[in-house]
Amino acid sequence: MTDATYRLRRLFNPDSGRCLDIAVDHGFFGEKSFLQGIEDLPAAVSTLVAARPDAIQLTIGQARLLQQQGGRERPALVLRTDVANVYGAPLPDHMYDLTLPSPGLAGVKLDAACVVVNLFELPGRPQVREACLRAVLNAKVDCERYGMPLMVEPLVMKESATGGYEVNGDLDRIIPVVRQAVELGADVIKADPCDDASQYHEVIQTASGIPVLVRGGGRVEDDELLRRTQVVLEQGAAGIVYGRNIIQHPNPAGMTRALMSMLHDGADAGTAAAVLAGTA
After folding, report:
1. Alpha-carbon span 164 to 143, nearest angstrom
2. Residues 6+ apart with CB under 8 A from 40
3. Are 50 and 253 in contact (CB under 8 A)?
4. Can you count the helices (H) and strands (E) in the chain?
5. Are 64 and 21 in contact (CB under 8 A)?
6. Residue 151: inside a domain
7. By C-alpha distance, which of 102, 131, 110 is closest to 119?
8. Rounded distance, CA 77 to CA 70, Å?
9. Is 278 among the domain residues?
């Protein structure tokens, strides 16, 4: 048995101990709206690689776009290993979450730093929660076999006015699902921000020392994103996993550099905005 913590050293910056993971695995979920900004995925990945984030999150079919580039200085690979149909509107009658066979082995073969699996909490859909629990339990066994770190993504959702789901930022709903992910053996947590970001230390506390990366979710204005990032970092988050707020931005590389300045150089939201604008 090998130690998964060795691979995690490739995910987190050795000086700051933090991580920016850019999620570009959206095509896995079969929703056309998720493809905005990544229609030409090879070009998008090349742009992100040049901006040098800590990690890029991809699927088994697209990991090659990262791993065939450069050498050991390239961003680490975070491998998405499950696919679900929970993001559409209206919601389908039958909902599922399916996981790759042997996700830990898939991560080893693709030289990933870790693999990620969802843990959904959806209103009125206990069968999806059960499927996720089975997926996490099975992934943990496989990841331990191959020394592959497991990132669990606990997502608490609520019904939206569009007929689909949206993020539920209720702290009292987020905390128990995060804690369950830790109890299941997560090596890293990827969780949503709560409605009041100044309370995020409670999420950090319930993670019991397991690093928490904060999910970006849907596209928001730059100033809101940078302010939220500053707050969750001050609250103890070990980093961020942003997708649409980078890949759908007019300047993905600039936004990457701005966020990296916050994570690793201690920049506040104002300084990061200047980095984004090219004036700092």
Report:
1. 32
2. none
3. yes
4. 11, 11
5. no
6. yes
7. 131
8. 13
9. no
CA distance 269 to 276: 10
Whether 188 is covered by a domain: the verdict is yes
The pTM (predicted TM-score) of the whole model is 0.94
Which residues lie closer than 8 Å to 178 by C-beta, 6 or more apart?
A: 154, 189, 191, 203, 206, 207, 212
Residue 110 lies in domain: 4-250
Q: Count the domains in the chain.
A: 1
pLDDT digits (tens, 9 = 90+) for 3-40: 788 899 999 999 999 999 999 998 888 788 788 889 99
Q: Are 254 and 278 in contact (CB under 8 A)?
A: yes
CATH number, domain at 187?
A: 3.20.20.70
Q: Phi first, then psi: give them for residue 267, nearest 5 degrees.
A: -65, 145
pLDDT tens-place string over residues 217-260: 888 999 999 999 999 999 999 999 999 999 999 999 999 999 99
CA 6 – CA 190 distance, rounded (Å):
19
Number of Cβ within 10 Å of residue 59's Cβ equals 18
Cα separation, 223 vs 47, in Å, equals 23
Inter-helix orientation angle 41-51/252-265, to 10°: 30
Within a domain: 258: no
Contacts of 130 (CB under 8 A, 6+ apart): none
Asked if residue 246 lies in contact with residue 22, where contact means CB atoms within 8 angstroms, the answer is: yes
